[in-house]
Amino acid sequence: QAGHTVIGYDQNPEVSDASSLGDMVAQVPSPRVVWVMVPAGAPTRATISALGELLAAGDLVIDGGNSKWTDDQIHAELLAAKQIGFLDCGVSGGVWGLQNGYALMCGGAVADVATAQPIFDALKPPGDSGFVHAGQKVGAGHFAKMVHNGIEYAIMQAYAEGWELLQAADEVDHVTEVFDSWREGTVIRSWLLDLLVNALKEDDHLDAIRGYADDSGEGRWTVEAAIANAVPMNVIAASLFARFTSRQEDSPAMKAIAAMRNQFGGHAIHPEN
């Protein structure tokens, strides 16, 4: 839509312009910019390693996935040995990005950012915000995106706990309408609130959804980084642990607490059915 010529490769041939990574590289004139958008970890490592064998000196690779920033440093060194540039770029916007633009946080050398800037300009939202060169150290972009996702965990958890309390109490008759009213004029209005209201309007009590929440890694990495830097991160850590709780059919820790309460105070316990 921005006028760039794009050659895409995916393992699904129905959405690919090329039959292989090699075919993709062959179709793009040098100097090339290759944007990698695959799952973090082994898939990204394998893709970037393969590109290292296919690309030429002066080409540039951008990792736009949710890689850990420490992986970026490894990938940059691997490509630098072949005189291939590397940028890491955290991307936020989800499935709505095509419509609203993608928030982009990149890390790497100034010259490499300048090379890729027309791509960033095409993807970012209109206006002055939505793109940042987070730092010249490789990994700065994904580190910034990691913290962004940690904050996202905490905001989502706060909305979820507020919704549960409103549902549980007798005082409020119209919970979805309360959340909807908060979308204008309040200090807690946000796009996440808009999305929650959308979901509640489709299913007022969320009966069709199981209370199970995955985590894709960034929350864990944020808490790990907080520990490494001695930064207190109580709320984000709690929101991460809440996701772990969501995956338990029954809490072993709560069983132990119930047993102790019964032992020291004779408090009632609830036997398994």
What's the helix and strand layout?
Elements: H1 21-27, E1 33-36, H2 42-54, E2 60-63, H3 69-80, E3 85-92, H4 97-100, E4 103-107, H5 110-123, E5 131-135, H6 140-168, H7 175-181, H8 191-202, H9 218-228, H10 234-245, H11 252-265
Parallel strand pairs: 1-2, 2-3, 4-5
Antiparallel strand pairs: 3-4
The beta-strand count equals 5
Major sheet: size, sense and barrel closure?
5 strands, mixed
- Major sheet strand order: 1-2-3-4-5
Note the beta-strand portion.
Answer: 5-15%
Which regions are unreliable across 5 or more consecutive residues at pLDDT < 50? none
Shape: elongated
Helix content estimate: 40-55%
Order of helices and strands: HEHEHEHEHEHHHHHH
Q: What is the terminal-to-terminal distance? A: 59 Å
Mean residue pLDDT: 92
SS summary, helix count:
11
